[in-house]
Amino acid sequence: MDWTHYRFLSLWNLTASADVVYGALERPEDYPRWWPQVRSVHRLDDTTGLFTVRAFLPYDLTFTAREVRRDPAAGVLETALSGDMDGWARWTVTPDGSGTLARFDQVVDVGKPLLRRLAVPGRPFFRANHRLMMRAGRRGLAAYLEAV
User: Fold this and answer.
1) What mean pLDDT is predicted for residues 64-68?
2) At what angle are helices 119-147 and 18-25 packed, to 10 degrees?
3) Residue 24's CATH number
């Protein structure tokens, strides 16, 4: 097993329409407004941004996210990630009853030296850290969408 390889899946049930949720998720430069763990997003060009994230554990991850698929009809936003973690992340946004299901899939290999050194003993903490970050993101987006 490669202890620095991670697969994540998060499901966010939201009350806003799929179009509204997709619209918010396709603007990553706004993520720091509603997602506390996304510390900064700097656009490098129309399809690429530099992200810095930090959840509960005391380390930042900095990575470049480059758009590889934007398909509003299918509700898909997909990015290639490189930097402290390499891999991909994808949002899939679908109507769900009177609301929306936003599915986040991510497959990454962690390259940050500290996280590689702590890969085995730290793995359960890193996974919990990700869960906490995603939980806060769902809450933040729900509140943001209610306010707009």
Assistant:
1) 98
2) 120
3) 3.30.530.20
